[in-house]
Amino acid sequence: MTEPFESRLQALAKEFKYPSTPSIADAVMDRLHAPKTNPRGGRQFARAWIMLLVLLAGLMFVPPVRAAVLEFIQIGIVRIFPAPVVIETPTIETPAPTPSSLIPLLERINGETTIEDAQQEIGLPIPLPAYPSDLGQPDRVFLQDAGGWMLIMVWLDKQQPGQVQMSLHLIEEGSWTINKFQPTIIKETSVNDLRAIWTVGDYPLVMRNADIQFTRLINGNVLIWEENKITYRLETALDLTEAIRIAESLQAKPTP
């Protein structure tokens, strides 16, 4: 009985119509050429960014780090001071020249000139303080070449002629004296709504013998700001409020 059954089964198999096989080649090729994605890698990348942002946010609570970051992202005067540290209280100041040594120091500074010749040389109106009203013209004027011009105007104390009452420096953009001057910042403030800093520290002056001397003309502070690509440095023994008032009183006469 086995043979007739097998023969019959084979005959039925030949008569059975097998359904057509669907074409899957196109679908397979589409999947092979589809861009690969890595969900796990994307999640890891996002997690890394979140951790970095949290770390940076935490560092901003550290005063020195916050000061350095703020200095880095500012424009204008920031390029003047590479990474100064903001402090809460003034540090001990470097002793300034004594009255007996002041006049010899002024005599050694290079580039003495007049306000008229200096204005003609730089080709720009030179602003002078209108406050205090009795200040008048500077007693000594120096114009130095330091990778860009640097104008130094000095007012002597009328009550003590051997001492400097105030000095005002105008420094052209690109001067190396800007990069070499790294003062200690006592406070950030503003002059005519422009960012300014109240500092203490020595600054470079070019002597007649071509030496560079880091010194101060006044045992006080320096108010620094930038306007129209000119850096202003006002040195005075007055307090910050008075220094800002002097800075905001600057008036320039047109060049002849």
Provide an overview of this structure:
With 256 residues, the chain is of the alpha+beta class. The protein has helices at 2-15, 25-33, 39-59, 63-73, 99-108, 115-122, 176-180, 240-247; strands at residues 112-113, 127-129, 140-145, 149-156, 164-172, 184-191, 194-200, 203-206, 212-215, 221-227, 230-236, 250-252. The protein folds into 2 domains: 40-73; 80-252, no CATH class. Helices cover 34% and strands 27% of the residues.
Structure keywords:
12 strands, 27% strand, two-stranded antiparallel ribbon, eight-stranded antiparallel sheet, 34% helix, single chain, alpha+beta, 256 residues
Gross morphology is rod-shaped
Structural class: alpha+beta
User: Mean pLDDT, rounded to whole units?
Assistant: 75
Q: Which percent bin holds the helix content? A: 25-40%
Q: Give the radius of gyration.
A: 37 Å
Number of separate helices: 8
Unreliably modeled segments: 69-101
The CA-CA distance between the termini, in Å, is: 132 Å
Secondary-structure element order, as H and E?
Answer: HHHHHEHEEEEHEEEEEEHE
* Total discrete domains: 2
Strand fraction = 25-35%
Largest sheet features: 8 strands, antiparallel
Taking strands numbered 1, 2, ... along the chain, how are they ordered across the largest sheet?
1-3-4-5-11-10-7-6
Count of strand segments: 12
Summarize the helices and strands and which ones pair or pack.
Elements: H1 2-15, H2 25-33, H3 39-59, H4 63-73, H5 99-108, E1 112-113, H6 115-122, E2 127-129, E3 140-145, E4 149-156, E5 164-172, H7 176-180, E6 184-191, E7 194-200, E8 203-206, E9 212-215, E10 221-227, E11 230-236, H8 240-247, E12 250-252
Antiparallel strand pairs: 1-3, 2-12, 3-4, 4-5, 5-11, 6-7, 7-10, 8-9, 10-11
